[in-house]
Amino acid sequence: MSWWQQWTWPSRLRSKGIIGMNRRNIRYIGRYNNRRLYPLVDDKLKTKLLAQSHGITTPALIGTVETQFGVKHIGDILKGHQGFVIKPAKGSGGKGILVIERVSDANDFIKPSGVRLSLTDVERHVSNILSGLYSLGGSPDVAVIETLINFDESLMAYSYEGVPDIRVIIFNGYPVMAMMRLSTAASDGKANLHQGAVGVGLDMASGYALRGVQFDRSCTHHPDTGRDLASLVVPQWETLLNLAASCYEMTGLGYLGTDMVLDRQHGPMLLELNARPGLAIQMTNGEGLRRRLDLIERQPSGVSPEKRVAFAQHHFARRSELLDSTDTPLPSA
Q: For the whole model, what pTM was predicted?
């Protein structure tokens, strides 16, 4: 039985603290996010440049393509790079993101799935990005080319042909709730829950897995690798939370979704930001956002990111649902 079938009645949803789109849009996004700041997060290139100016680590920028004339120079831009990611600056939901894991001796561009693309295929994809095929509202776009993330080795067994990312909801600078998104064969190697990625709720105190969900149903193991989700823990958890919390000062947005990745060399990195983060994080955590958001609204302003993180770790700690009652409790910090 899926989570929404268990919580069908509105009274049960309210008792769980579940918030819907209307409350999210009016109570939090409308009240705490100034619309003039949206371009800072809706445009991935602007987000990257802003993050760099604030000393926040992001994947290195290889280059950009802004005009159809520039598409023919994509081969020169990519020369010497064995792995890279091409994405639309104004895309959403993972649409239009092309991941190339390596380049063969025959100059074929090989995706994580093993599919081979020619330079013409890559040029066509970039041209589609520029035409607005993947952008919000279909407006003309810019293709952003970044270095490939070498994600932390400890997480390899939990993802299939793709980089797992961590979504953290930040409210008034406080980390409120977090989940990891694990790519699968069904999601075509993308960390997109709607396409079949596994969502894993994370304990705010420790970064340990709380519960797993795929296609609205509970799961305890990765469907492709078979790895037990109960053993999943995010390395450098406190560093990651501090990085996410500092995005509040960086953007000025009060209600924010931060998408982070873990690079084996550079540690936690900011992938992108979202001024309208989705609500599926409640499903992966098996808990609603409302009680946590209500508590944060009562907190004073002017608190440092480190203290905000410490507050969240203390007040939002949970025990994993993936553990048996006989298991040793996870550490709280």
A: 0.89
